[in-house]
Amino acid sequence: MRNLSGQDSEVWLGRVSSAIARKIPTFFRSFPYKQDFSGRLFSPVENGADNLPLDSDSRVAVIGSGPAGSFFSHFLLCMADRLDLDVHVDIYDPRDFSAIGPTGCNMCGGIISESLVQMLAAEGISLPANVVQRGIDAYVLHTDLGNVRIDTPLHEKRIAAIHRGTGPRDIDVNQVNWFSFDRYLQDLAVARGARVVRDRVDSLAWRDGRPQIKTRAGALQNYDLVAVAVGVNSASLKIFQNLIPTYQPPVTTKTFICEYKLGEKNVAAYFGDSMHVYLLNLPRLEFAAIIPKGEYVTVCLLGEEIDAPLIKSFLESPAVRQSFPPEVSPEIPPCHCSPRINTCAAVQPFGDRFVFIGDSGVTRLFKDGIGAAYRTAKAAAEAALFHGVSCESFKRHYWPVCREIDVDNKIGKAIFAWTRLVQRQPHDIRGLLRMVAREQRAKAGNPRMSMVLWDLFTGSAPYREIVKRAMHPSFVGSLLWNVLAANLTPKRAKSL
Amino acid sequence: MDAAGIGKIYLDGEVIVRQGEVGDCMYVIQSGKAKVEEEINGQTVPLAVLAENDFFGEMAIFERQARSATVRACGEARVLTVDKKTLFRRIQQDPALAFRLLEYLCHRLRNLDREFARLKTAI
User: Fold this and answer.
1) Quick check: is B2 in a domain?
2) Cβ of A118 and B97 within 8 Å?
3) Mean pLDDT of chain A
4) Model-level ipTM above the cut of 0.95
5) Which of chain A's residues have a Cβ under 8 Å away from the Cβ of B53?
6) A interface mutation test: which of B1, B2, B6, B53 has the most A CBs within 10 A?
7) How far is B45 from chain A (nearest CA, A)?
8) Digit-coded pLDDT (tens) for A167-219
9) A118, A293, A398, best to mutate vs chain B, most B CBs in 10 Å
10) Which of A354, A362, A445, B15 is the most exposed place for a label (fewest CB within 10 A)?
11) Of the candidates A109, A115, A71, A72, which has an alpha carbon nearest to the alpha carbon of residue A462?
């Protein structure tokens, strides 16, 4: 047998572990929680290295200019400025977010959660009215047995519906009077000093211990840090896997998003300033929502490998048909897509001089993806500037944020399993509708169910907090009472 | 102002926070202006006019005391509420969030110093 040197054996271990991790993803995905073990087994180059601090004239490449990439660039440059460091940031993205249709779109429902809207305001980033398509101040929960409206606790519009690009493909270019959210964030980063390179990254290599980027146009650039923010729908993730064998991309599932053009009057009359959420008894459908925007509504279906028959069942279901104007056909509109979303975090989304942020690393399950992009991007920027860009630094100062989100997602999976059960039980649905309707009418007291559902649908609170509130004896007692009362007086309950 | 935009719309002269009230949130102006005034010995003293992106109401949540001044919309203004609980939880998770608040408070303190010096010179 060939004798392996220290570094060879680590590389070999890295390759073997990557190969096994590809075959048994769920098993290996639990390993990153054991920090020492993951650090030693999966990281072939970082042990013994110093923290690789960033200093003045350090060069940072950000690959991908969605929210994660732009937030990272913005916060890195903000904090570098506070520390009097002159860091250079290049953002690589061939897309132009001011383009109409798929070329300028990042394939997302386009909701900025209540908590993110507040945090951005506290950061000094107030979303302008020409970026916000509609302020949302209520949710309408639709079930097979009826619907109920849940108003925002403060009766204030604190959720923003946005278009990630400049608009759906069937939009009239002369009528665009708004601004793409992704373009707005990119402009924030540019205003801080970032440079946008409209070119695709073709390959990566190590040169003198630093990552070197080669673009499709043939440009070669060396960097001190590469932040990867390409999402999970990009083929470029493969080029990083070759360079950092310890990184395993997130586990994903297919979703469905489409845009219906209804006109401003119809959107206001049929959907108003409310997000419409559907808990229907359709197999494999975890969650569906219709988000009103200016002239359009965005339909989002999340679940297990959403396919054409499931989309058809949803669009033709009575609860959905009743939401739309009668003249609108349940056909899939011209602007639609089936992007993939994370259901399980990446394995080790960092390495020496590399960090994976946003969807390429970890995001929140089914909700608040832009909020997760903000949190991971900011945590990565802080780790890089204050602690260095070594694998060890990211493990100590960036990974805990990812881990917290990932652990919370596991609780989220349990909650969605519970909602799946509830969706199939008409008795439970009646009780739930009765409880919410009574809370909303009362306008006083503790609206326990309304708050649990509000936080579940909006992504405003971590899943563990939602569970904590749902385990409260008063909540459980009240729900049981409402289930009993609703089913003992079915006629009254149905009229809710 | 239409359906686009976040926060709550206050009409000209409408009170957003009232002096003496206990508050558990701070506010960020999204669009428009707001005037800050303090009631002293029955007289209303104008203190400042705030514009887009300015904060107010943060003193009451950090000091856990009643609102020190009244803030009214100056023309139509759209104002976003930031919950104390949400803010403090995020600051605890990400202390760097407090940088921006500190910067803003330093800026306000500097303006107050300047105003104080100007008044002292005038006396």
Assistant:
1) no
2) no
3) 86
4) no
5) 124, 126
6) B6
7) 28
8) 777 777 777 777 889 999 999 999 999 999 999 999 999 999 999 999 999 99
9) A118
10) A445
11) A115
Distance of alpha carbon A120 from the chain centroid: 16
Contact B81 A129 (CB under 8 A): no
CA distance A456 to A466: 7
Distance CA A52, CA A438 (A): 58
In a domain, B98, yes or no: yes
CA distance A103 to A108: 13
* Cα B42 from chain centroid (whole Å): 22
Distances (CA, A) of A37 to A33, A40, A53, A219, A406: 9, 5, 24, 38, 18
Please report residues of B whose CB lies closer than 8 A to that of A129: 1-2, 4-5, 30-31, 78
Residue B18 placed within a domain:
yes
Is there a contact between A161 and A291 (Cβ–Cβ < 8 Å)? yes
Distances from the Cα of B32 to the Cα of A128, B3, B56, angstroms: 12, 16, 14
Bridge partners of B70?
Answer: B37
B123 Cβ contact partners less than 8 Å away, ≥ 6 residues apart: none
**What tens digit of pLDDT does each residue of A9-35 get?**
544 544 544 444 444 444 444 444 444
- Counting the structural domains of chain B, the total is 1
The whole domain housing B18 covers: 8-122
CATH number at residue B96: 2.60.120.10
- Return the H-helix or E-strand segment holding A78: helix A67-82
d(CA A488, CA A478): 15
Token pair for residue A291?
A: 């988000």
Q: For the whole model, what pTM was predicted? A: 0.87
Residues of B near A (Cβ–Cβ under 8 Å) read 1-8, 28-31, 52-53, 78, 80-83, 86-87, 90, 93-94, 96-97, 99-101, 104
pLDDT tens string A194-205: 999 999 999 999
Cα–Cα distance, B39 to A49 (Å, whole number): 61
**How far apart are the C-alpha atoms of A82 and A59, rounded to whole Å?**
17
Rounded to whole angstroms, the Cα distance separating A79 from A187 reads 17
Q: Do A160 and B86 touch (CB under 8 A)?
A: no
Contact between A393 and A51 (Cβ < 8 Å):
yes
